[in-house]
Structures are given as structure tokens and as C-alpha cells.
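Sanity check

After download, print the first record. It should look like this:
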Amino acid sequence: MARTRYTASEAAIPLGALPAAALRAVLQEGYSRRDFGRDVLAGLVVGIVALPLAMALAIGVGVAPQHGLATAIIAGFVVALLGGSRMQVSGPTAAFIVILAPIHTKFGMAGLLISGLLGGAILVVMGILRLGRLIQFIPHPVTTGFTAGIATVIATLQIKDLCGLELAGNPEHYLERVYAMFEARNTFSLGELLIGVTTLALLVVLPRFTRRVPAPLVALPLSVLVSWVLTRLLPEFEPATIANRFQTTVAGSVIHGIPQLPPLPILPWHTPGPEGTTFTLGLTELRLLLSGAFAIAILGAIESLLSAVVADGMARTKHDPDSELISLGVGNLIVPFFGGIPATGAIARTATNVRAGARSPIAAMTHAVTVLAAVLALAPLLGYVPMSALAALLLLVAWNMSDAKHFVHTMRVAPKSDVAVLLTCYVLTVGLDMVVGVSVGMVLAALLFMRRMAEVTQARLAAGTHPDVLGTLPPGVAVYEISGPLFFGAAQKAMAALQLVEDRTKAVVLLLDEVHAMDATGLVALESALEPLRKNRCLAILSGVREQPMALLKKARLDQREGVVFSTNAREAVAVAGRHVGGEPAPAPTPLTPPAAAPPAQHR
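Expected C-alpha cells:
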């Protein structure tokens, strides 16, 4: 029997029904044992893919790999349980590295966890305020530019572990890190590079032969084998691995690598500050961490909702963005109390989930349980994974994230203004940070939008004749026609034509049935244009006002002003104007009754 897919209606889901919206829909449709079997299988596959990625992404941020694993386990389960997308898989992602790494360097583990906590709170508020659908209004050049910039930063920073460089310090900013790697060029290790290149080659080549077996499941064990061979051939070579890079103290005992334990509850503000110092939480620290929290929330929302859209396209489902934001926020509120870094929807893991045959959020929940089982069973073995192999994995992630072909295609075919926005976002994201890149990109995109709206909005003043009205107009009557939205940027240009009205004109008809939208700037421009007409005792007749502008004009009480009347169509407006010019008194103001939609333009 055909399955009815979960679809979100145009009307917003009631706030109380947002948590677990996708899971509720699945259970209401009917969830069979066969569906459960497919979800479990898909979850196992995604869990295998997520295991090395979670470790590598945590290391990319600068923290121990178990923090990334805690994110995949806790946030991966919670977000799937409460979310609005059937196929979404959440966890640590590469995009967060450029935000989280500087926070960790400056504020330590405590600052990183608290930033994630604050970001989660912001995401919950965004979901409650129904801001999920606003993400779609972020221009494509902005998302393409900052995504490619993030990918560039991630790829560049992997040079350190890929080549075995030993940096003198851990600079906070990207350009300083690049310079520090250049200064450490004499510490280059050919053995580390061989391990990394071998791993990268396997990750690239294996999917071309088969996709049934996740490439990391083959490439990382082979990288351990290559590392072991090199240590036998080169006695002086000692590769950097998870075990000799990271140590954790548990119950007074030092554990090398990943503890063979589930994520344990902690208080984020009791974790170490920068360089292991004691962290003190106060209003000053919260204020400093808020900018990073805001960046975490915005990037998390963008990436998670983009990932949900990808899942919708692949599985022919429809997610609820507000439910997804709330679930993501709750996940990020909980995960810091288990030592996890911020999480968001992961596009690659979500796509793998769909291709593996997932049917519901239970697949993503199974993925979290799979990662937990792997930690409990394989933690000692994971310590042998070379750091250069994980750097190679992140290089591939960065390449896929950059979508270089699409970047070049956009550069080639997009208008010059969009290319300027894209390059600005890219350069600022790489040179400064993502928040600056996105902020400046959005401002540029808004300015370009205003210019385009000004070009789209047309206005003309006809005196004597007008082809759409009754042919010859009565003497002293002018018809002024506006087409296009009266937004900021376009309003002043459109209203400027009213200055051409001659002194002998006694009535002006404003044809507004092609103005479908008006904002406050458009209202002010209209009011400013009507005032000189009133002073010259020139009657203004507004014809065919549409629903949204009518509601705005009523709020401004324009219908109660002297010298302003309304008509439903142009023919009626010209008749009123002719009678006024002929000596009849101006019609008295009549209160409007919005919404008063005008008839179609062809009926004028």
C-alpha cells in the first residue's frame, strides 16, 4: 500500500505539536517492522561513517576526539527524536570548525561548551518565534561564498597534521595560523605525509568501485597498517596518533586516547579555561561569548535547514523548519552537559542515511546508538588511528563542502553584482571570520536588492491622454501610473515623477493596481508626494489599491485626509476627477474597509 509522505501544511504547526513532529507523523501513518529493520540498517551504516568524522571534527576544533563522539551520541539522538525532518542526521560538522576553533583557543573548553549552550538557547527562541522559514531568504551568493570560504580554511588547517608540523603556538586567527605553519616548515615529516596521502587516495578511489562499504571503514584501518609498516622500516619515525596526542584523566588514572566510557554528565563551567587555567563565569565572560553563540546559532540553523532540504529532495518528504530549529536548540542545550561540542544537521551523513534506506528519525537515533556501541567496544583500538589519516579525511570533507564546480559555475554565469557578493563573502570568511563575511554579504545583497527593485518599479505621468483609461482626459486631469513594489530604494524614485504635475492640474489619478506591496518607506514617500498636491488644492484619487497597501494606508488614516479619495478602478477615478475639475465639490473622505482588493488590471 502506498505510504502517505509527511508534509507540512502551509499553516504553521501549533507550537505544542512542534517537538517530535516528524516522529509523530511517522507513527500516525503506521510504522511497520519492515520499516524498523530498514531504519536500523541505515543507522548502522551512518554510525560507521559518523564515527571517524566525529573524532576528526573534534580534533579540527582543537579538542579531544571524545567530545565529538559525545556530540554524535547525545545531540544525534536528541535532535532526531524531537526534530521536524524524517531523515536528518545531526552531529559535529566541518562548518563549525572555523567558529569553534578560535573560541576554544581564546576561552578554553569551558568557553566552548558555554558558547554552544547559549547558541542552543538562541536556536530554541528562533524556532518559537517561527523564524525557520526566514533562512530561505539568505541569498545564494552569500551561502556559496561563506561555504567555500569555510572549506578553504578547513583544508588549509589540515596541512599541520597532514605534514606532521610542530607549531610553536596555537594562534587564534587563520592568517596567523598559516604563517605559523610556514615558520614550522622545518619540522615536516615525510612519513606523516605518506600516511595522509595513502588515506586520501583510498577515500577518493574506493567509492568509485563500491559504495556498499563506507570508504573510511577501509581507509582508516589501512592507514594504521601503513603507520605500523613505516615504524618498522624507519625506527626513528614515531607517527602522531590519537593515543599519543590526547590523554584524559578519569578517576585519577590517565587514559591515552579515547576513554572506554559513555558520555558522562559534567558542568560546562567547571571544565578548564584557556591553556588549562581555571575558568570563571561572569557577566563579562557571557557578554564576550555571546557573539560566538550567535554565530553558532545562525550557522547551525542555516546548515541544518539546508540539510533538511537536501533530505526532502532525495526522499520526497517535507520538513517543518521551526520544529527542526527547536530540536536543534534543545540538542545543543543538553550536549554541553555531556562534554559535547555544538551540533547541526550534517548534509553528507543525511544523504548517506537516505541512500541507505532510512524511513524515519529512528534511523538517526540508531546512528547515535551505533557510535556509542563503537566507543564502548573499540575505544582502545581507535587510539591507533594516525592524526594524518584524520587530516586526510577532513581534506576530503572540505573539498566536498566547497562544491568547487558549482563555485566556478556561479562565477561564470551569475551577474557581476552577485559575483561581487560571492567573492566578498569568500574573502572576508577566509581573512576575518564567517560572521563578518555573512554580515557584509547580507548588507551588499540587500543594497543590490534595493537597486533592482528601483529598476523594476516604473512610473509615468500622462497629461491629456492615457491609453488605459478613456482616451482623452478632461482638461486639468493627470493620470499617474505606478507598477512594481513601493519598497525602500524604489519609493523615492517612483514618487519623484509627481513633481512634474503642472500648477494648472486640478486632479491627479494615481493608478496603484500594479503595486502589490508597500513598506513604511513607500508610505512616507506617498504621503510626501500628496502633501504638495493638497497645498495646491489638487485632488488626489487613489485607484485600485491592492490588499496589502490598503491595510497600510488605513493604519496611516490616509482615507481621512483632506484632498485624498479612493476609487475601485481607473474609469471611476477619472469620472470623479472630471466632476471635480468641472466645479463639483471634492467627495468627502470615506473610511476604508480593508482588505479591499482591486480588480485585475485588464478590467480598468
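If your output differs, re-run the checksum step. Summary of this record's structure: The first strand starts at residue 90 and ends at 91.
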